[in-house]
Design a protein that fits this description.
Largest sheet: 5 strands, mixed
Strand order of the largest sheet: 1-7-6-4-5
Number of helices: 8
Radius of gyration: 20 Å
Helix content: 25-40%
Distance between the termini: 15 Å
Shape: globular
Number of strands: 13
Strand content: 15-25%
Length: 352
């Protein structure tokens, strides 16, 4: 028995926000002081480092559970499965539903339960829960779903990554330009076909690393609001990722029994273009190899960083030939990897 992805889907929001739309923002440092550079200079440097030119935000009428549901519908249609045969719905998310204009995160019932309700699934044995694991949440959900199938607890699982970071960003924080909204989903099933998940790797570094991404007050210290926003120590995350992610990817590939020359594509969490390029370069260097041309598909330029949604969305876009010069062939060996709050790292080696 193998465990394979039989369908994928994604939801890319309609609202496009370009870098130029931040020209009138009043950016401040963590201590509340003004940036020394003009917004034009700040945005230019931001683009050079992250590669982001625009990002997507959800409509005011939508919530995270809505876009999770829409991505799920596409994955279900792609896999052509009967929804009543799903054993688990696992949703990776970090902030739940945050309605436009609200300061509260709504997480009860779970996003997975809300998706099940929207799908109108009647089967009570379809179990629903959320994974809170930072940006690597969707990959971790896939690892958990694989475990359920492997041990006989399930035959068919729906795993979704969905986030609406536009609802939890501080407009006075330069890092707000990184974040975006989106959802990606996959159906994972037991299969008699060759291929599927070959190996996985997961780690949590939780000493000082646990403080690299957190919820904090606005950089605008004149504000009397007690609202908290997503905050991160970008430099620390960058340094951590460059040291730890390539090693985790190498370990995962070695466990799979495949060699570096077998690898056709690497799908890395779309957090920062320069960081991803440095990770892939260091990964191949561990095998004394140069990075092959076109091995790492990227979507961050147009879609930004949608946290748990970046990897499943990127995978869905490549499968459906929505990214120029990127496609998958049956039998291709691919690697999925992510890093984020925790600090958590994970990877999957998969035969397509």
């Amino acid at each position: 028995m193998n465990i394979k992805i039989t369908g994928t889907g994604s939801y890319i929001p309609n609202v496009i926000t370009k870098n130029a739309d931040f020209h009138l923002h009043q950016f401040k440092n963590l201590d509340g002081s003004d940036f020394p550079n003009s917004n034009e200079e700040t945005i230019k440097k931001f683009k050079a480092i992250t590669g982001i030119e625009e990002r997507r935000y959800i409509d005011d009428s939508l919530n995270t559970s809505d876009i999770a549901f829409m991505a799920a519908q596409k994955a279900i249609a792609s896999a052509n499965v009967d929804i009543e045969t799903l054993d688990y719905i696992i949703v990776a998310t970090n902030y739940g539903d945050v309605k436009k204009g609200s300061i509260q995160s709504d997480t009860v019932p779970s996003m997975a339960t809300r998706v099940k309700a929207k799908l109108r699934i009647k089967n009570p044995k379809c179990v629903c829960y959320d994974v809170l694991f930072g940006c690597p949440g969707w990959i971790e959900g896939m690892i958990q779903a694989q475990a359920f199938i492997k041990c006989g607890m399930a035959k068919k699982c729906l795993v979704i990554g969905a986030e609406s970071l536009s609802r939890v960003v501080d407009k006075h924080d330069r890092d707000s330009m990184i974040f975006s909204d989106g959802a990606g989903a996959a159906i994972l099933e037991a299969s008699e076909e060759t291929g599927g998940i070959l190996a996985h790797e997961t780690a949590t570094h939780s000493l000082s690393e646990s403080e690299y991404i957190y919820f904090g007050k606005s950089n605008n210290q004149e504000s009397e609001s007690d609202t908290r926003f997503i905050k991160m120590n970008g430099r620390k995350i960058y340094e951590f990722a460059l040291i730890n992610v390539p090693n985790a990817m190498k370990s995962c590939l070695e466990q799979s029994g495949k060699g570096i020359d077998d690898l056709k594509k690497v799908f890395i969490h779309q957090a920062n273009e320069k960081m991803d390029e440095a990770i892939i370069k260091r990964f191949y260097k561990l095998f004394d190899k140069k990075t092959p041309e076109g091995v790492m598909p990227m979507s961050i330029k147009e879609l930004g960083n949608s946290s748990v949604a970046t990897v499943p969305t990127l995978l869905d876009l490549v499968i459906n030939k929505q990214i120029d010069n990127q496609e998958l062939q049956k039998g291709d060996i691919i690697l999925l990897a992510s890093v984020g709050a925790g600090m958590n790292i994970n990877a999957i080696v998969y035969e397509y």
